[in-house]
Design goal:
alpha+beta, single chain, 114 residues, 4 strands
Length: 114
């Protein structure tokens, strides 16, 4: 358990909101037909929003079993969590519903123009 907190401190100490631009929370809007953009879910990446006053250790406690590669604070209690083993959005949402300290979880979508 102590190792997890040391690792968490290292991960959080080496990242900042300035390094990683904030992404709006919520479900991404579908792109209008014909605009040439495409969205792709980034496997193993999730946006986790904590309920105030929850601490980042909650993420380790709930999702640590999937091998946390990194946790990046994006601001406003939102964290980008990268997992070694992707359980899928359904499992992530189920675990979110079981924890009062996690407000929301959603897959991280990447968008690109065509």
């Amino acid at each position: 358990m102590r190792f997890a907190f040391v690792l968490l401190a290292i991960v959080l100490g080496t990242s900042s909101a300035q390094d990683y631009p904030s992404k709006p929370v919520g479900k991404p809007a579908a792109a209008p037909a014909g605009n040439g953009s495409q969205q792709t879910r980034a496997p193993g990446e999730y946006l986790v929003t904590l309920a105030a006053p929850a601490e980042v250790e909650v993420i380790v406690g709930v999702y640590g079993r999937f091998g946390i590669r990194s946790i990046r604070h994006l601001g406003s209690n939102v964290f980008l969590v990268t997992l070694a083993e992707d359980p899928g959005p359904t499992t992530m949402e189920k675990l979110c519903a079981e924890s009062a300290q996690i407000k929301a979880v959603e897959p991280n979508f990447r968008y690109r123009s065509q």
